[in-house]
Design goal:
Blueprint: H1 8-22, E1 35-39, H2 52-70, E2 74-76, E3 80-81, H3 86-96, H4 105-130, E4 140-141, H5 145-160, E5 164-174, E6 179-181, E7 186-201, E8 207-212, E9 221-226, E10 244-246, E11 253-258, E12 271-274, H6 279-287, H7 314-327, E13 331-344, E14 352-361, H8 367-376, E15 378-380, H9 384-393, E16 399-400, E17 402-403, E18 413-416, E19 422-424, E20 451-453, E21 457-458, H10 460-464, H11 467-472, E22 487-493, H12 497-512, E23 517-523, E24 526-527, H13 536-541, H14 553-560, H15 562-569, E25 578-579, H16 582-605, H17 625-646, H18 650-673, H19 690-710, H20 715-725, H21 727-730, H22 752-770, E26 779-786, H23 789-806, E27 808-813, E28 820-822, E29 825-830
């Protein structure tokens, strides 16, 4: 069979057509054998384009999935798209230049649905071209009816169990997106600010100085605090009376109190408590029953309590109040300071606080339960477990699952207009939209008043944290598939341990009292050449004059092939970041071309080999010593790759296969057997000689094993070569439905002699290079001399295989004029 030049686009198109026409990655629900189920990250359809870092993080688990499938496991490998909630809203708002708040709800939701469908189709096309072995019949969308039913069922079940409460409490708030947030939505941002020292009026005309970075919250001030042991303020809190201070510019008085949590070393040692600047303010307000002065409005402007500053955005209000303080002689100092502030991770807007009724899931009081489940999981890599434990230990708030947005899963709730009693939907009616659907009761069961819909939607994580339940069918009438609960493996990036992974553990523990999966596989980031996390900005700046963008998977695959991009991903061990380098992509393509060219070598040298008559193959122990040598190496490589894959170490598995392919198979073995296959030299073996048959059968068998070893990493080129050479004889429609290689028990023995032969051949190559002779040029003599008894014994064993492999007419024992020394043996050549 003759092969032309390697054309990756044609190879990939043919393989995809084969996989899709035969649906080879479909999960067999009714089959026999163990199930390997994967909880895959549903990507947000809220990015203009995916980058090579995404291709890396999705390829890495696919290596493991493909291995498991070839091990005979029934693979359940779904894919979904996270297309509800704030990320999608922001994307649509930016893409269309609109604001959700300014549009009719139905119109905006329709816009979101249309855009997410288009984006999901682009993503699916990319994943298919990358060769992800997903079962696309299992595709879901977190806004579809199945996902809405699952999320609403969870809400009702958790409410029935007492884990959900509705409370009017201080909540984290984004003034840009005008929605409440959960603690996991907030990240730290370090920035330069100014620390303003401001004069409050104290008793008897005394000046009390406080230092704050937020002078715009002066009209929200409700108390001053100092440490009880701070001698500067020892007279301010006598036992029988309360000292009061006057707030500058605004003229009202607040109490001065003592608390050991105040840091005497910060600023002036006096702490201003406002409602609210941070979590410490919330704690003291609740514990000490302080008054409530909410001055920040939901849109980020100051409210009526700010007097003349009302209506100003926060940044302008800060400048105006500082200017007014300075004009009144109340600003003592203003110095630059580095500070860490909490910002909304989606828009980087500093978070504020509001008070309004919200739905919360209790998590803080059950922290020990979640830690116990974290300990049950197998973590790959193990140190990632600590990230979850640290997050659990640092919980300050329960999980706020309410969002004031338009596009998301509705709460299945109606409220009494008189007594606010919640009325929940019936499970059999789900999914419901209370803004469009009728409630399950005509009136409030408590007081008989009318009902109105809950207008809010759920936090997007409330749905996506249920991906195991979405996939196993828990909330559907058919019930869950017992083979999928818990699932085998969750794959995800480390930065969403605190969100997706944590919330999934919460849901599984509170609903079922178990872990959602047995293994958590945590990937790292794809980085630029400079070591920075790839971003949209990198995509925008990386297109060359030829239109090629090195960070866009579509461009990389068009130029180098999907296998090349996947092979780059093998370089990053799980849990570690990986720098992108186009040179590494070219190396991946080099492998694909080499594997293709080895296939061409087979097509030229195996003509007439009757592989259907397997019994005619010589037994391994009867083959040439060089053939036995390569089979021993091959068995070792298979065992090493298998052990690495069983430990989820795809990098080591690939390295074992790669060393076998390049160093042993291509650089050594093929060069050693070329003449034995029927070379053009007069003393080449006869075409029907046992020595030639040994080489031909070994070449046929070993190439097939190599295709299996590389199938998880380079599925396209390996599939093509399988189709060309082996499908007809094996009968299986695809390489990826065949079994993972298992070494023949007879592929074992002592390979040390031929290892030395290979080293000697390397020495002859150096000598050839000095004489400017190519590796295929015929030598007149190969001159060898042993200098130790062990070396002499070795030469006796490998003399003839060495002569043939070196392409020498004769082998001469004795000294050479310009020898090369190799472990007790000197080697020379004569052209």
């Amino acid at each position: 069979m003759e092969l032309g030049e390697y054309d990756h686009q044609a190879v990939e198109a043919t393989a995809r057509a084969l996989w899709e026409s035969h649906d080879i990655y479909r999960y067999d629900r009714d089959g026999a054998g163990p199930v390997f189920s994967v909880d895959t990250p549903p990507p947000y359809v809220s990015a203009a384009h995916l980058h090579v870092g995404h291709a890396m993080s999705y390829s890495q688990p696919d290596f493991i999935v493909r291995f498991r499938r070839m091990r005979g496991e029934r693979v359940f490998y779904p894919i979904g798209f996270d297309d509800n909630g704030l990320p999608t809203e922001r994307y649509v708002e930016q893409a269309y230049g609109v604001r959700a708040a300014d549009m009719p709800r139905a119109e905006f939701v329709a816009l979101c649905l249309a855009e997410t469908r288009r984006t999901a189709e682009r993503y699916e096309d990319l994943w298919r071209r990358l060769g992800l072995s997903l079962d696309w019949s299992l595709r879901y969308s977190t806004i579809d009816a199945r996902c809405q039913r699952t999320a609403q069922t969870s809400f009702i079940r958790l409410h029935e169990a007492g884990y959900v409460r509705r409370t009017q409490d201080p909540i984290l708030w984004c003034t840009e997106d005008r929605t409440s947030l959960a603690q996991a939505d907030v990240e730290d941002l370090e920035r330069t600010s100014r620390l303003h020292t401001i004069r409050f009026g104290g008793p008897d005309g005394q000046a009390l100085l406080i230092a704050t970075t937020r002078p715009e919250l002066l009209p929200a001030c409700v108390a001053l605090y100092h440490h009880p042991a701070d001698p500067r303020y020892s007279g301010l809190t006598p036992q029988n009376r309360q000292t009061r201070a006057r707030v500058p510019l605004f003229g009202y008085e607040v109490p001065v109190l003592a608390d050991e949590s105040v840091d005497p070393q910060y600023g002036t040692g006096l702490m201003m408590v406002c409602t609210f600047g941070d979590s410490e303010d919330v704690l003291k307000w609740r514990r000490d029953h302080l008054p409530l002065r909410l001055v920040v409005e939901p849109d980020g402007r100051l409210g009526p309590l700010a007097g003349e500053f009302a209506g100003l955005p926060l940044a302008q209000a800060r400048s105006a109040i500082v200017k007014a303080l300075a004009a009144a002689g109340l600003l003592v100092d203003s110095l630059p300071v580095r500070q860490v502030v909490g910002v909304h991770e989606r828009c980087q807007t500093p978070v504020e606080f509001q008070i309004r009724p919200q739905w919360f899931i209790a998590v803080r009081e059950h922290a020990d339960r979640f830690r116990a489940r974290a300990a049950e999981l197998e973590w790959i890599p193990p140190y990632m477990r600590r990230r979850l434990e640290d997050w659990i230990d640092g919980l300050k708030w329960d999980w706020n699952i309410t969002r004031q947005r338009r596009y998301g899963v509705p709460f299945p709730v109606w409220f009494c207009t008189a007594c606010a009693t919640p009325v929940l939907a019936r499970l059999q009616d789900l999914p419901v939209d209370p803004l469009a659907d009728k409630p399950p009761a005509q009136a409030c069961p408590s007081c008989g008043s009318a009902l109105e819909a809950d207008p809010d939607v759920m936090d997007t994580w409330m749905t996506s944290s249920l991906t195991p339940q979405i996939n196993d069918g828990w909330a559907l009438s058919s019930g869950s598939d017992p083979a999928l609960a818990p699932m085998s493996m969750r794959v995800q990036a480390f930065e969403i341990i605190r969100t997706w992974l944590f919330y999934s553990v919460v849901q599984s523990e509170l609903l079922f009292g178990r872990v959602p999966w047995r293994t958590a596989l945590i990937s790292g980031w794809g980085l630029s050449e400079q070591g920075k996390k790839l971003s949209k900005r990198d995509l925008d700046r990386s297109t060359g004059a030829d239109g090629f963008n090195r960070y866009v998977p579509d461009d990389v695959m068009a130029k180098y092939g999907a296998d090349a991009l996947r092979l780059w991903a093998t370089k990053g061990r799980i849990g570690t970041d990986l720098r992108y380098n186009e040179k590494d992509i070219r190396t991946g393509r080099k492998f694909a071309v080499k594997l293709w060219n080895v296939g061409r070598f087979l097509s030229l040298n195996l003509g007439g080999l009757d592989v259907s008559a397997a019994g005619s193959a010589p037994a391994p122990e009867e083959r040439n010593v060089v053939d036995r040598w390569v089979l021993i190496h091959l068995a070792e490589a298979v065992n090493q790759a298998t052990a690495a894959f069983e430990a989820h170490d795809y990098t080591q598995a690939h390295q074992s296969a790669s060393r076998m392919f390049w160093a042993i198979y291509c650089d050594r073995y093929i060069e050693m057997i070329k003449d034995r296959l029927g070379g053009s030299f007069p003393d080449s073996p006869d075409l029907d000689s046992p020595d030639r048959a040994s080489a031909r059968w070994t070449l046929w068998e070993s190439y097939r094993v190599l295709l299996g070893l590389f199938a998880p990493f380079a599925p396209f080129v390996t599939e093509h070569m399988y189709q060309q050479f082996y499908r007809y004889h094996e009968g299986e429609v695809s390489l990826h439905l065949t079994r993972w290689p298992v070494p023949d028990e007879r592929w074992r023995g002592d390979r040390s002699a031929v290892d030395q032969l290979a080293v000697i051949l390397d020495a002859t190559r150096v000598l050839r290079s000095g004489l400017r002779l190519g590796n295929s040029a015929r030598l007149s003599e190969l001159i060898v001399q042993a200098h130790t008894p062990d070396a002499e014994a070795l030469l006796e064993q490998i003399a003839e295989p060495l002569r043939i492999a070196a392409r020498a007419r004769t082998l001469v024992r004795g000294p050479a004029d310009h020898p090369s020394g190799v472990d007790g043996i000197t080697v020379g050549i004569t052209a």
